[in-house]
Give the backbone structure.
Amino acid sequence: MSESRVQHGNTVIGKLVRTVLLLTLLALLALLVAAAQRGATLRGQVTDQLGDAVAGVSVTLIDRDGKEQTAETDERGIYRFTNLAPGIYSMRAARPGFANYDRSELKLSDGRVETLDFKLTVTIENQKVTVTNGDSLGTDPASNKSALVLKGQDLDALPDDPDELAAALTALAGPAAGPNGAEMLIDGFTSGQTMPDKQAIREVVINRNPFSAEFDRIGFGRIEILTKPGAGKLHGGANLLFNNQVLNSRNPYAPNRPNFLRLPLFVNLNGPLISNRASFFFGFARRAIDDNAVVSSTVLDSNLNLTTFSRSIVTPKRFTEFYPRMDFQLDKNNTLSTRYSYTRFNFKNQGIGGFTLPSQAYASAETDQTIQLTATSIMSPKVVNEAAFQYERYRRNLAALDSTPSIIVLDAFTGGGSPVGAAAYSQDFWELRDYATMTAARHTFKFGGRLRQTRIGDFSPTNFDGTYVFSGGKAPRLDGQNRVVSGPLVDITSIERYRRTLLFQQEGFSPAEIRAMGGGATQLTIAGGNPFIGLRQIDFGGFVQDDWKLRPDFTLSMGLRYQNQTNVNNNRNFAPRVAFAWTPRLKSSGPPKTVIRGGSGIFYDLIGINLTQQAERFNGITQAQFLVTDPSVLDVFPAVPSAAALSSLAQPNTIWRKAGGLVAPYTIQSSISVEQSLPHNLTVTATYLNSRGLHILRARNINAPLPGTFDPAIPGSGVRPFGTLDNIYEYESSGVYKQNMLIVSSAIRPSPRLTINANYAFGKVSSDTDGQGSFPADTYDLRNEYGRASFDIRHRVTLVGTVNTWWGISLSPFIIASTGAPFNITTGLDANGDSLFTDRPAFATDATKPSVKMTPYGTFDLAPGPGARIIPRNFGQGPGYFVINLAVNKSFGLGHAAKPASGSGQNSNPNGNARQEERPYRLTLGMNVTNVLNHTNPGAPIGNLTSPLFGTANSLNGFRFGVAGNNAYNRAVILQAGFNF
């Protein structure tokens, strides 16, 4: 590392240290301000008859005027009220499955901390219904009804496979998360390579408190996963799933139905280590999955005739996971939670599917280990501190099965060997945070900081064996005997150019003759040099947040967040946030019926280390990446010259770099919502959301030929700004996006037997880039880039629910319906010499031109002249999506039920026969049917106008969940057996 780079790194780290000190001073000032303010505090623990903590209990305090405040017990059964006015209160505690607890004449004094522990008596087993932040509305910033809390039976209804569970949660999070999608946090930590199995998850919270300064990413679309602690007595269970090809319907894009197997086993055991002091949770999972990849491409047979290659290939996957967690009550004010997870993956036949042939397969072996420590301290009745640390160690090894050069025939097939070679990747990541919460009169302050570091080591000889690219374009017309016919040139497809190359080589024509007759490769890319790159990136985020209850009917939240990172010279990432909650027509008794919420804030996205990794690797020194269009070199096909030989021939290099003014992208997001409580426990929320993204990442070839200087018939022609033929791809932060959405969500719980959460979103998103790997059609004219964003889905509906019917049978539907996403339409040609196939056609004005093509999406000119109107980016409209999943389960109670406590009055069965719900053991049998109606959801259509498959899809929609496999089936029936005690 150069001295200047070291000095720059020290300078950035010094600025981070100064920022931490500044935020610490602000926090101390807030503490001093709050020290002079007083209020009453009430806390306690809720247990059952056996002394076990009861989570999810709704505890309500009612003052003499009838105004109510509600808190919910956590996993340790703890509830807490702060900032209470002194006076006489009554208390009510309720949870399904327990008798209500009532207490009157509860006196609270100013500045005092009262402790009230109590027990709940079991009536029937908890029905495991969803509770979304309590049943009543309020102005607490974290009680927004646009949030969704999933636990119990509603969580059980979601997929068991962790990858598909993540996809399901992403669907529920909705389309409001900006260009980078939803963010997932696990126990408050940034999620790593894997997420926990569902058996280890206590609850999932989606879209809660979206304008909190505690979080860096956009609040709408945030997924918070909380794992289970140990229980007060021994519990455990095992869950086995089974699915194979007999239970599945065939993939409509595959002519064969190969073997398919899914056999996951999940086991867990949890309970006390030391009574009332320590508990444990241990989980183990072994997943054996023989998945399928569907290859659907156009290839040449042995006689060089075009034929369709459509086949399902078995892609075995094996997962082994175990994850212990221990929780310690060090004393009455301090707790420590520790969690460790180990996951090993073994995959075969990866990297194939769609256009990619089986010869491109590679094997992958991965391990991921994570340890988390969280210490919570009640420093005083008004101050709670949480310190947490996470370390993750991830390793991956790849091995290509074929080391021959790759061949890409654009939008026809990708064959030859895999370009990954023999690769090894390591990542070490740690995260340290310290957050404090302090209450003072009407204020609740939260402040703290988070420091993270990522260190990678990547040995990646990617494309060291080379890749040939064949594209469509102009060529002479051939007759039935493959002989040239005089006349104007015609447009040919990429696979026709490949066919002519092989045909005329077999017939003994010279390379020059082959190229003259429309054959010959279009490009050759090959890399060489040092395959290893090592990098480190540090980022810091600090915040201060104040939730100020100005009046009983109005809460104002104000926050400020600051972020910074190494590898980017950008130090002004201040992100203010402000939000409010107002209850109009607040009555003196009973909870409010209407809450109006609003807010606005700035949210920064850190620039990932992979961008710096690409720029450091292909800087022209560490590795050389050649992109060759010289016919004299291309005509040695199928042989591949070495990178050293290309360097000696002074062939153009491909260089990646970061723009000097690169800054972190950010989004200004604002919303206004109305929450309305209706009869029958129905809550409806309508939200208008506006987002504007600035400094969004894109890439450009800044050394592309100047406009009008490149002749496609003469490779290497054109005048370039830097005076060389090198392609210089530069990451820059010059993009924008605008999003407007209307979201209507509803939650209904008319009885313990039925819960429904439904969501409808209407929106429009426009942008001029689709992210850091997105190139414009014309590097010198970005005006035509502004159009529909790739994630512009206009209408989306999701519905998830649980119905507990008779005889212990439960039904859990999950429905998603949406209109299609847009897709980009390109010519499949490089008419401007930028080495990229991102050129878009123009709207045709003369249908008789030979370059005009008529399609269901319009009539386009593939060779537009000066002044022609180029079509917008993402002009095509993809197909919609519709799926209904249904889980059906039947539970059987086994064993003898524990007798209720003496005098409890809860034994409602005079015959002494225990009801099924009260028995200590439970056997559950069920099935999960994905895509009940067997509806085919096509993937994105092919957008290359020179492809024989233009406008059609060659695979199912990649957004699938419910079984471990995106391509093996169209409908699947998964059988399930579980035992719990």
Observations:
- The two ends are 58 Å apart (CA to CA).
